[in-house]
Write a structure and sequence with these properties.
The structure is a single chain. The protein contains 8 helices and 10 strands. By secondary structure, it is α/β, with parallel strands linked by helices. The strands form 2 sheets. An 8-stranded mixed β-sheet has the order 3-2-1-4-5-6-9-10, sandwiched between helices. Helix 4 runs parallel beside helix 5. It is globular and about 45 Å long.
């Protein structure tokens, strides 16, 4: 990614999966200072990111949250509550939830956005990026068209931050998908993506795109 953001921000990414890695690489390439909060630093991903990018720092969840103004929660869904309790005082910080519920049963469903808001007390919590594969974060172009972003939440401040981050990731349009009550609909869209990509075997390199006639 050759694009470099005009705004450099301190961004914490909680999680050690492929989505966390892809997000860290793209945002670091855009010029942001990245703090990756991990439970276990001793893994190949940590070594690679730390050696390949001067502006990616590998640390604990607590330290990453303390160093950043923007916190991205990219953990598995069953770790959301535990992670939220580790964030300490983030009431003035923007928290972006990108977790997905595709791997959980309906009876085990967790509204992660509301859980994070309730535990942290931050009013600036939004949800996005849950309807995309990690590949979309590295290569957001399909047939020379940039993909779109949907964001849910009640914080105007957080949604403006998401707009900046989305542009830094190379996305085109950022659509306001509604307030917190639209979270369930976003999660259902993530399940649709998973069904098409995995169960119907169309492959992970697919995305949703809004086209206007």
């Amino acid at each position: 990614m050759s694009y470099k953001s005009f705004v450099s921000m301190n961004i914490a990414i909680m999680g050690a999966g492929k989505k966390s890695e892809s997000l860290a690489r793209s945002l670091a390439s855009a010029g942001h200072e990245i703090f990756m909060g991990m439970k276990n630093y001793d893994n190949p991903i940590s070594y690679y990111l730390r050696d390949a990018y001067e502006n990616i720092n590998i640390t604990s969840v607590e330290q990453a949250a303390a160093m950043a103004d923007i916190i991205i929660v990219a953990t598995p869904l069953d770790e959301v509550r535990k992670t939220a309790y580790l964030l300490d005082d983030v009431r003035r910080k923007v928290v972006i939830d990108i977790t997905s519920s595709v791997s959980v049963r309906s009876e085990d469903y967790l509204n992660s956005l509301n859980a994070i808001r309730s535990i942290t007390g931050s009013p600036h919590v939004v949800k996005c990026l849950n309807c995309k594969g990690y590949e979309n974060l590295i290569s957001p172009l399909f047939h020379n068209k940039a993909i779109d972003m949907l964001v849910v939440g009640e914080s105007k401040k957080a949604k403006e931050i998401v707009k900046i981050i989305s542009k830094d990731l190379g996305m085109e349009n950022i659509y306001d998908f509604g307030d917190n009550d639209a979270t369930l609909l976003m999660d259902e869209m993530a399940k649709c993506w998973h069904n098409i990509a995995i169960r119907q075997k169309m492959g992970r390199k697919i995305t949703f795109k809004v086209e206007k006639l």
